[in-house]
Amino acid sequence: MDAAMERRREEIVAKKAKLAELKRQRELRKEAASNRTSLTASPDPIHQPSPRKPNAEDIDLILKKINEERPRSTGPGSPAQRAARPISVISSDNEGSTSYKTTTTMVDRESQTMSMAPLTTVFEFEAETKKDTEVIMYSKAVQTSDDWSPPKSRGVGQSDSEPEGSPTRTPRASKRLSRRQKERDEEIRAMLRREIEEELKAAQQTNPDADPTRTSGKENFPFKTLTDEELAAVERSDDFIGFVERSTKVLERALDQQLEYDILADYAQGRLNLDDEDEGQGSLAAKKGRRVKEIAQFWDDRWSKKRMISDLGFSAKFPELVLASYTKNPSAPHDPDGLIQVWNLHMHDRPEYIFHAQSDILTAKFSPFHPNLIIGGAYSGQVLLWDTRAKSAPVQRTPLTGSGHTHPIYSLDIVGTQNANNIISCSTDGVVCGWTVDMLSQPQEFLELTSPPPSKTDDMAPTCIAFPQSDPTYFLAGTEEGSIYPCHRYDRAGAKAGVDSRVKYSGHAAPVMSLDFHPAKGQIDLGDLVLSSSVDWSVKLWKVRPPAATGTSNALTSGNPQLVTPILDIAREDLVYDARWSPVKPSVFALVDGAGSLEVWDINVDVEVPVQKVTPSDNKRGAFASMPSGLGYMNRSLNKLAWERNEGRRVAVGGMDGVVTVFEVGHDLGGLETRSEEWSGVKRLVSRLEAVGEAGGK
Amino acid sequence: MAQNTFEETLSHLTRLSQKPGVQSTLILSRDTGAILRTTGLISKSSSANPNSTLPASAETSSDSYTNGRKEGGLQSAEDVASMVWAFLGAAGNLVENLDREDEVKLLTLRMRKNELVILPAPKFIMVMIHDTPPA
């Protein structure tokens, strides 16, 4: 400290010399400045002209202020006071206040008190946070510290708790300022910046010193309290928002996972867990295998409200992710109409991702060939592509005008192989387009489906399309009038591209809501079995003619299409909105209906009653929670269902109320191991049904 | 996904802090250790009101800081922060000694009564204290 005092004394001597030199100048300036300050009497312009405004005039003003300030605090007083000043900086704490008093006595020094006014506020700030200024420096602070540093020194001197750091810094600052009064403001700022850097370095050095004492007590507490401004600055940074976004997801997963299983469970503790595990004894064992258990429900207050679920899908790569697309919320015109939420089975209260579109999304699915991509069809006729690595807006979309769809897309699919696949979309005006994932600006293929001759008009209104597993060039289209037509994407032997007019699958009396080819991944090829559901309260099972054979065998019946009837007709008690084969069990399929139940069928067991029938629980009554129960019938309607593709253990259903419910099925209805009898059983059933059908036909 | 506004981000935090079993949350700055945001840490002991998940995200952390300081006690935000900081430092040392290339991604500390989940990120540290599930 003595050395420091010595240094300061030298500085003061130097200053004195300079002051003498500058005396005349000062005289002139005083006058000019007093004129100026009388003009700018309010305190604001006085402490604003900090380097934040790199205005040469302003800086001049500061410098003059500093100039004035110095002779006043020292000059007019006695030399003793002048000598006392550096000491006050170091140790004494009343010097600062006395200088205040002296300054306020004279009218002439009004301007000086003005320049002090902001200092008092800084005082409080310092006393509160002590070390803190050394820990965090924002660029803003760097620029203003020029104005603030002189008061800081006094403040610290007063509190007397911080002998290092700030006191050494401030006299230097003032000295430099006085030395470079006439120089350019850029230089001053550069100086200050350098100084701040030094300070930062010093702060970094002092931090490790504090480290060992950190745990010991509160005095050396390493954490600072940020001011509201700093806090706001940090909290609004993208970094912070991104971090909160990610970390809260992780923590919610951690919480939800814990509810499912406690890894510290001690089974020796004798707490009987009389769960469903114990049910499977004796005759109940069979029942357990066919159990359908609800495992999760997804609903978001902000986004799911007043929206209906239009489609569902599981991710092929991450079986815990379920995608749900929603229609618009009519009561929220400012929210985007179209919505997709990706739910995680390990995180129950919040979607993993949210995607938006400008128009209702009517159908959506994960790309089976790329785990990050989601494709969707919109009411506006657009095909949209989202990427889970990107933001919530679609990364690609087809144009609204020109080529492509101009009617709502209710059905789309991705067909092909990993390396060569296309998006096939179908709109209600009968237009079928093929797109490549990389370029949605123009369709690669354009096909217009028209009703074959016997019908009164050409128009065809397909509601759904379905591709067989084995052949991406051929598909079935279900229509609003109830017929199902085979269609070809390309010209081929004996058939032109478009609707194959020689075969017509007729049986439904109302719009076909879904079509699903048998997934057929087993010993026996059942890929020609198709399940269709309709709002005529029925599900029908069809055996589809192979596309190549249709031409030759029916050449005779030219003009009149050959009518094919279903091999199995399952009447239900309500509208059937969706029916899907299990991806693993050959004889199992599931359907959802307008009454709000999910039915799981096993055609090997029974073709007249479902094996299981369940309804989603009321735990999360979404959109209609507050409605009177009399409306329950409509509310409960389930629109869509989706199987988890890899293991076939889970089924997601959703409908009018916007709630996604996931069920887990027992090992008789899902799971990877299948017995060969199941396959042969289906084969036998189909041939028996065919025989019956032919007999009935004749 | 980063389109979410500041308020929406905060709503995530609020919801997390109000989930059943969650006692308190704390966000620290990684480099300075400054307390950026805290919920449920104002009360001085967890036994006094074990499930107090105050909707504290509305108030700034400096408020809760001073509150916690006034009341003193074990569970003030800055106490927890300093302990977590020390714990994380120790864990970081352990990892560094095991494998210099590696780093801490998640710390879960289960106690008889509470469980601490600490999620360090390059710039921030998220801390959650919640009830140990009934075993």
Automatic annotation (TrEMBL), chain A:
State where composition is biased (Basic and acidic residues): 61-72
Membrane-spanning parts: none
Q: What main location does UniProt list?
A: cytoplasm
**Which GO CC terms are listed, alphabetically?**
cytoplasm; cytoplasmic dynein complex
| Location of the protein in the cell | Cytoplasm
Composition bias (Polar residues) maps to 89-106
Instruction: Note the segments forming the WD repeats.
Output: 505-552
Q: Which UniProt keywords apply?
A: Cytoplasm, Repeat, WD repeat
InterPro entries, from UniProt? Dynein_IC, WD40/YVTN_repeat-like_dom_sf, WD40_repeat_dom_sf, WD40_rpt
Region labeled Disordered — which residues? 25-113, 141-187, 200-222
The GO terms this record gives for MF are: dynein heavy chain binding; dynein light chain binding
Pfam families linked:
WD40 (PF00400)
GO BP: any one term = transport along microtubule
Q: What is this protein called?
A: WD40 repeat-like protein
Automatic annotation (TrEMBL), chain B:
Quote the protein name from its UniProt record: Roadblock/LAMTOR2 domain-containing protein
Q: Where is this region: Disordered?
A: 44-73
Q: Which family does it belong to?
A: Belongs to the GAMAD family.
- List where Polar residues composition bias occurs: 44-67
Write down the InterPro entries for this protein, in alphabetical order.
Roadblock/LAMTOR2_dom
Pfam families given in the database record: Robl_LC7
Q: Where is the Roadblock/LAMTOR2 domain?
A: 9-130
Q: Which Gene3D superfamilies match?
A: Dynein light chain 2a, cytoplasmic
**Signal peptide (UniProt feature, chain positions):** none
